[in-house]
Amino acid sequence: MNSYQLFSYQDSGGRSQESGGSILPTPHTPHPTPHTPHPTSPIPKPYPLFL
Questions:
Q1: What is the pTM of this model?
Q2: Is the Cβ–Cβ distance between 15 and 7 less than 8 Å?
Q3: Where is the composition biased (Polar residues) (predicted)?
Q4: How far apart are CA 51 and CA 49, in angstroms?
């Protein structure tokens, strides 16, 4: 009986992690794209931007 419960638990955990892990890395890639242009604009011309 103990063997059966262990198997059922692993199946549920593996499935949940695969679904969540695949969706997380997708939206994380586009995030670093808009972050790069931000520090480049205010660094070269911080004066005209403030005016």
A1: 0.12
A2: no
A3: 1-20
A4: 6
Pair of tokens at residue 22: 């695949």
Quick one: three-class SS letters along 4-47?
HHHHHHHHHHHHHHHHHHHHCHHHHCCCHHHHCHHHHCCCCCHH
- Tokens 């520090």 locate to 39
Give the model's confidence band at 45: pLDDT under 50 very low, under 70 low, under 90 confident, else very high. Answer: low
For the stretch 22-39, pLDDT in tens is 555 555 555 555 555 555
Say how many Å lie between the first and final Cα of the chain, rounded: 74
